[in-house]
Amino acid sequence: MATKSKLWCGFLEAGDKASPVVRDSTLDTGNPATVYLFNFKRSAILEYRKTIVEELLRELTKDEEPLAADLRKEYKRVRAGFTPRRERQLRPPTRVRRAAQETEESGDDDFDDDAPTMPAFDDDSAPEADPSDA
User: Fold this and answer.
1) Strand, coil or helix: 15
2) Which of 33, 90, 94, 95 is 20 to 30 A off residue 53, Cα-Cα?
3) Is residue 67 classed exposed, middle or buried when 0-12, 13-18 and 19+ CB atoms within 10 A define those classes?
């Protein structure tokens, strides 16, 4: 599989699952034992084991060469929405804030943190006034 440019168009001979494919040398799976290939029949970029797939790849025949333009066009469309696994792993996780933390940080609460806490009384459980205090 000679690589003159970053995109290589070929054919994956896999019986019923045979398909024209595109290999982009700039896509990294993050695993040296695997490779990404754009599978034209499935219209998806899939991860394959190198030891298995490299034996099944071949150059496009003269009859298949006109397909290369459609292959590249469809690959570019699918590639626009694809994030390689390695890039997903390298991104730092996003922090999710709890609603309570956001309220404390924004200062939107109606409570003064320095004010004494008042007990909550129900009408039924409120202490009755002592007549001797009057």
Assistant:
1) helix
2) 90
3) middle
- In 10 A of CB 12, how many CB atoms? 20
Helix ranges, 44-128 (H): 50-53, 67-79, 85-90, 99-106
Q: What is the pLDDT along the chain (134 residues), one digit of tens a residue?
A: 544 579 999 999 999 989 999 999 999 888 999 999 999 999 999 999 999 999 999 999 999 999 999 999 999 999 999 988 765 544 555 677 676 555 555 555 555 556 566 666 655 555 566 666 55
Q: Which of 11, 84, 15, 86 is nearest to 46 (CA)?
A: 84
pTM: 0.61
Report the alpha-carbon distance of residue 76 to residue 56 in Å, rounded: 23
Dihedral, 29, 35, 40, 43 alpha carbons, nearest 10? -20
- Maximum CA extent, the chain: 110
| Under 8 Å between Cβ of 22 and 7 | yes
